[in-house]
Each structure stands twice: as C-alpha cells, then as structure tokens.
Amino acid sequence: MKGNVQQGFLRLGLVVLSTLFIYGVMFLDNALHIWPAFGLDYSTHTAIALVFVAYFIVYKSRLMHLMVISMFSYALIMVHQHYHTVADILTTSVFILPVLLLIQSHKFTKC
Fold this sequence. Notes:
The protein is mostly helical. The protein has helices at 2-32, 44-59, 64-80, 86-104.
C-alpha cells in the first residue's frame, strides 16, 4: 500500500513538472516570440493535452491508440474552429511531446 501511494505521488509530481515545463515554454515563447518568428503560434492547449497523453502513453500503454485518436480529434476541432493551424499543433507537438515522454518516464533522473 505504501509503495502505491509513493508511486502515485511520484506520478502526480511528474505531471506537475510536465505542466510547469509546457508553461515555461509558453512564457519563453511570449518573451522571445519564437513561434511568431515563423508565422506560427505556440499551442498551449495542445501542450496541456499532451501532458496527459504522455502520462497515458507511459503508464497505460494499452490506451495509446485511444490517446492518438483523441489528440487527432482534438486537433481537428481546433483547426475547424480556426483556433490553431495544423502547423501550430504539429510544431508544438514535435517540440513538446519528446520532453514530456522523458519527464513522465522519469529517465532524466537516471542520468
């Protein structure tokens, strides 16, 4: 039981760390205008969704297909509503997801 509680707190901490990372990137982008320099927009909505997708990929891999479908559906809705472009979503995802997977798997602590 104690191990499960510790594991739960570790996973919660990694989700919080992931969230801090994506908002840190948002603040960095706002300060340095990285995405706008390419005519794009950092998608904080995509990034926060990816925090939870990364969690499920790492800890509930049997749900990976569902996560991919949900993210694809979410992206379609954002594009349909003209909230973000496909390029906004893809560039955010390509930059953010590898780091989130690294954080969630906590391999960065084993270096």
